[in-house]
Write a structure and sequence with these properties.
Length: about 350
């Protein structure tokens, strides 16, 4: 049995065109020109390096040696594979490229799905166990970053009023730590929650509210985010998503840059529809538990709809981070019964908190 093959002696860079034949005891490598013997390899010492999926032609070697034999003739490889059990891999056909790509794609999708499950459920159950001192430190750092170029309001009586209500709501939910509310002068008409029970209200929201129940409703909603640990879950989830993207793309980032660059902070603090619904439900329940008017959340959303009839959340569909406003109004609609959340004096002080 003879055919054109290549022999690498493993000692020099020289490549020899050789013939190959096999006997019961050995593989004989010879020069086709004069049939001179180049090497005799015992059958028991033969092995194949690699496989057809990673090598165009897997080389045959003698265990313990550096020399390699590349048999280019496919028919000869199949014959040798049938005669010598150790050379079975020579007969393997490479997996079609399309199938290999499909397999890789399915594997990658499965890994991404598994990673997402870990990120999603891991942040849901593990993030709240992060020590409160670390959550508070993170919240303070993010607060300083976000409001560095803005003016904070310092009206003592107004801040006392909103902080007193915030902590009453938090205690009603069994939250064990102090909540701190900051009021920032100007807009937008918005409020948000940071890790460690830090709340930020913009004064435009307080000034443009139709009544005190709306401000109490927004505050109760934000307390819902606090007691369910949504801020730290959101940051942990966003970092997990970024890590996933970096792993897939082969890139690298560190957690500090993730948390302190402005765009990433805002992205991480977006709560998502499930969190928003949970905060709405919790806010209404806490107001009712304290015997306070609980219609303010729906009232605030109705005012938003009056100003912007085209619901951006509804238009964005599944891509929206918030539920449709109409849905939130229907879910939080309550009668105008219950005590006012702020006394007349406290409400006036809160309205004047930036003066």
């Amino acid at each position: 049995m003879a055919a054109s093959s290549r022999y690498y002696d493993g000692a020099t860079a020289q490549v020899s065109e050789v013939g190959v034949r096999v006997t019961a005891a050995e593989l004989i490598i010879f020069r086709p020109a004069d049939s001179g013997i180049v090497a005799r390899w015992p059958i028991a010492d033969l092995a194949v390096l690699g496989d057809a999926n990673h090598e165009a032609v897997p080389p045959v070697v003698r265990r313990g040696g550096e020399a390699r034999l590349v048999i280019r003739d496919a028919e000869l490889r199949r014959q040798l594979a049938g005669l010598v059990p150790q050379l079975t891999a020579l007969a393997d056909l490479p997996t079609p490229v399309g199938r290999r790509v499909a397999t890789l794609g399915v594997t990658l999708a499965a890994l991404v799905g598994l990673f997402w499950v870990v990120v999603d459920y891991g942040t849901e159950y593990a993030a709240p166990w992060l020590p409160y001192s670390l959550q508070a430190k993170l919240g303070e750092s993010v607060f300083e970053e976000l409001v560095a170029d803005k003016d904070e309001c310092h009206g003592k009586r107004g801040l006392e009023a909103i902080n007193d209500l915030a902590n009453r709501l938090a205690r009603a939910a069994g939250y064990e730590h102090e909540v701190v509310v900051h009021v920032i002068e100007g807009g937008p008409v918005n409020a948000f929650t940071l890790p460690g029970g830090i709340l930020v209200f913009y004064s435009d929201l307080i000034e443009q509210a139709k009544d005190r129940s709306q401000v109490a409703g927004v505050l109760a909603h934000e307390i819902g985010h606090v007691v369910h640990h949504h801020p730290i879950k959101g940051i942990a989830r966003q970092y997990g998503i970024e890590l996933l993207a970096k792993l897939v793309s082969g890139g690298y980032s560190d957690l500090l840059n993730t948390l302190t660059s402005g765009g990433n902070i805002l992205l991480a603090l977006r709560n998502g529809r499930a969190f928003e619904r949970q905060a709405d439900d919790t806010g209404v329940a806490l107001l009712e538990k304290l015997g306070l008017r609980a219609d303010g959340i729906a009232g605030f959303f109705e005012q938003m709809m009056e100003k912007e009839p085209k619901d951006a959340a509804s238009a964005a569909g599944i891509w929206s981070s918030h539920p449709p406003t109409k849905e939130r109004i229907d879910a939080t609609k309550r009668p105008t019964t219950g005590r006012p959340a702020f006394s007349d004096a406290d409400w006036k002080a809160l309205r004047d908190v930036c003066k």
